[in-house]
Amino acid sequence: MEEAVDYGRERLRRELELSDKFTAVGVCALTLAPPLIELGRVNEAWEVLEQGRGRGVDRGPKLHALDSSARDGDEGLFRSR
Asked: d(Cα 4, Cα 20) in Å, to the nearest integer?
């Protein structure tokens, strides 16, 4: 699981270097947060989700839609734990 976290962090770093905000939001919500939650690092996962949400704000309709989906997913992830 730690390898999944490392992979997620590396992927987020690369997407931000490429200035691909759309993919970076997805990486936060779909690649990095779930393994952190599985490891019980809920506070760290929440920070990652908040980072993703912050990148999605005011960046256009696609990112706003992804942000809304991520928020719904966040609630489901944290409720299931």
From this structure: 21
Predicted TM-score of the model (pTM)? 0.61
Residues written for the chain: 81
Looking up tokens 């991520």, which residue turns up? Answer: 70
Please give the residue that has the higher pLDDT: either 3 or 78. 3
Scanning the chain, the segments in alpha helix (DSSP H) are 2-17, 21-26, 33-38, 42-56, 61-79
Rounded Cα gap, residues 3 and 35, in angstroms: 9
- Are residues 8 and 16 in contact, defined by beta-carbon separation less than 8 angstroms? no
DSSP 8-state assignment for residue 59: S
Looking at per-residue pLDDT, the higher value among 48 and 58 belongs to 48
